[in-house]
Amino acid sequence: MSMDKKEYYIRMHSNLQYVKKNNCNGDYLCPICLNEYSEQDVKNVLTEEDVPQKSLGGNRIALTCRKCNSRCGSDIDIHLLNAITTREHRLFLPCSERKIRIEKDGQLLNANLQIDEDRTIKLLVDTKRNKPDTWIDFHNNILLPNEVVNVEDVPLKRNERRISAALLKNAYLLLFAKTGYTFLLDKYYDSLRKQILEPDVFHVPDRLWTMQNIPIPDGIYLTQDNRYRGFFVIYTLRLKLLYRVCVLIPTPNVPYLMAVKELEKIDSKSQVKVLRLPDLDYFNNMASIETLNQWCYGWSLKF
After folding, report:
1. Whole-prediction pTM value?
2. What is the per-residue pLDDT across 57-116, written as a single tens digit (0 to 9) for each?
3. Helix/strand/coil (H, E, C) string of the chain?
4. Residue 258 has pLDDT above 90, yes or no
């Protein structure tokens, strides 16, 4: 679904004018790299960002620069998609198909594994993906009734650090789409932004997220515990199955390491208290912006 770029720009530009703190001269800042862009760039250069990525059911809710959009897609988003795809492959879900390799006596045959609605498994061989002699040998001598062969999924690249960065990026942009630059321009979040762009380096501690079953709707919630004070951003990833994700984005008062250590203590039996972020205008309403800032930089659990 396309977004209204003009309306989005007006809201974000107005918000940026209110919260500018660092001699920013641009009309818009890419929320990931914070590079400055003019109004003309916003219209013609910046790209609409799906959050989560489109392949996992996301919608276009933010504008990022072309470089960040492309870099995140190839460096981290693909790893998240591959991780979920690999998990679903192991479940042999009905109405699914994937690439496989069949190995026998040192020979390798490329094929597709198709699982029908009734869970019937079919082997589909595309002769164009294989050497003619290899396919003939498999057809005549190997793929015979009651023959045992080794079937392996074609490996998909996936890296835990990059998967974590993708989950973090989704939460950060969801929070940005709701609150704008109001507090996210704080240098405290530079480390988080670097983690998204440089996933293999430990800019912030790992595991600011959990995929445990969370019995509350998707949205942004204020934590009600100062040990991990911040925002729980809860969202759903959709492939064939649904996956609930909860990411903690701490406030500047809480060191990242402390937040992670406290988050690790939360298990399926923990009673976690949260308060849904009120649906206010955090872009142009001065009273709402001040209230949000007071919560971010204070210790009171009330909003």
Report:
1. 0.91
2. 999 999 999 999 999 999 999 999 999 999 999 999 999 999 999 888 888 899 999 999
3. CCCCHHHHHHHHHHHHHHHCCCCCCCCEECCCCCCEECHHHHHHCCEEEEECCHHHCCEEEEEECHHHHHHHHHHHHHHHHHHHHHHHHHCCCCCEEEEEEEEECCEEEEEEEEECCCCCEEEECCHHHCCHHHHHHHHHHHCCCCCCCEEEECCCCCCHHHHHHHHHHHHHHHHHHHHCCCCCCCHHHHHHHHHHHCCCCCCCCCCCEECCCCCCCCEEEEECCHHHCEEEEEEEEECCCEEEEEEEEECCCCCHHHHHHHHHCCCCCCCCCEEECCCCCCCCCHHHHHHHHHHHHCCCCCC
4. yes
* 246-259 mean pLDDT: 96
CA distance 69 to 53: 10
Q: Where are the domains of the chain?
A: 5-83+159-297, 91-153
